[in-house]
What we know:
Layout: H1 2-18, E1 20-33, E2 38-54, E3 69-74, E4 87-90, E5 93-105, E6 108-117
Antiparallel strand pairs: 1-2, 1-4, 2-3, 3-6, 4-5, 5-6
Amino acid sequence: MALAGSLQKVAKKVIGKFGGTVTFRLITRGSYNTTTGEISSTTSTSSIKGVLDAVKAAEVNELVQASDKKLTVAALDLSSAPDTKDEVEISGVRYQIVEVGTIEQDNTAIVYDLFLRG
Length: 118
């Protein structure tokens, strides 16, 4: 666990230094309303640092397209693991997370690679 904790701190420091500020929207689904036919949701936002990059050809698959973007964020910056229901806003543009990749050490998340579609 000591190595994982050290790697988490290094990732947060490096991404904090070289990354840009983005808004992360954690969307929590609530209960289903039988009257309206809708599912309620709660959104909490936080500003975090992330490194934005283009998707590489080797990362393209049935979910990720070549026109998508990849945002790398430190796991320590998020209160919980991101999910495809969450969103990211960069420079006023809202992106849907289509896939989440996790780089981990000893089953501890170090960074998340969020594949985004606008």
